Amino acid sequence: MAADSARPSGDGTSRAVAWVAPTVATLACLLVWEAAVRWFGVPIYLLPAPSGIVYKMFADYRIFYVQAIPTLSAILIGFGMAVAIGVPIATFMVYSPLFRHSVEALLITAQVLPKVALAPLFIVWFGFGLLPKVLMTFLIAFFPVVIDSVIGLASVRPESLMLVRSMGASRWKAFWKIRLPYALPSMFGGFKVAITFAVVGTLVAEFVGSDSGLGYVLVVARGDLDTLTVFAAIGWLVVIGFFFYYAVELLEKFVLRNRGRSRAHELGAGL
User: Fold this and answer.
1) pTM of this prediction?
2) How far from chain centre, in Å, is Cα 172?
């Protein structure tokens, strides 16, 4: 009883440490940065102070807000396409060795191709709109979705599948009740990697050729030697990356918790 009553306190302490430690480390780095810039009198066009960057981020928030909309659109659409196409392909790869061997080389080739070299071609083919940014984002986010989904779907114990099939379950039901729930942690690991890659993919596309977006702001500010705006845009990109990462993490916890409750209910009622 004593051990059980102490467990929540320990869990709360570990959660606090998980949040406090990186926060303190980040603040310490920012304070050192601020002190070094002020102590050595570094010009703002070389390296602005963190306080100036944060002020710029919020003082010109309307500009960043307007330019963030096309960036966010490309990230969400490209990542959504990577999940919507990558998960079915991974499923076919698990169920069909012939299909897996047929597309494996293509997947690796698509991943190792330098995306910066492809971006100008997308501009030539599709212009300066949203489509080339979405395609670049999709290409960069696609690989981790497929690979982690394949690993998760293929890692289920054969005994579990045989047990379900022996009870008369169809292949689809075995997939839905056993293989997919078992694969979800691995799949969400790929989703979290992919969403961070999606931010990078959109930024690469906006760097190479775009007339809108935070990457476009970076290019224009760099040409004007406006280092403060460059760092402010980078700051908003970091915020966006963190937001999407933890949004996927929260979705993972919600899905796994609900799947766990559903699984417990099914075990109680029988498949």
Assistant:
1) 0.82
2) 29
Q: Report yes or no: 200 and 75 within 8 Å, Cβ to Cβ.
A: no
What architecture (CATH level 2) is domain 52-269?
Orthogonal Bundle (1.10)
If you write DSSP's letter for every residue of 22-52 in order, what string do you get? HHHHHHHHHHHHHHHHHHHT--TTT---HHH
pLDDT in tens, the chain (271 residues): 444 444 455 565 666 666 777 788 888 898 988 898 889 888 888 888 888 899 998 988 898 899 999 999 999 999 999 999 999 999 999 888 888 888 888 888 888 877 777 777 877 787 777 888 899 899 999 999 999 999 988 887 776 666 666 665 666 776 777 777 888 889 999 999 999 999 998 988 888 877 788 888 998 888 888 889 999 999 999 999 999 999 999 999 888 887 655 554 454 445 5
**Amino acid at position 171, single letter:** R
Q: Where are the beta strands (DSSP E) in the chain?
A: none
Tokens at 52, concatenated: 């100036």
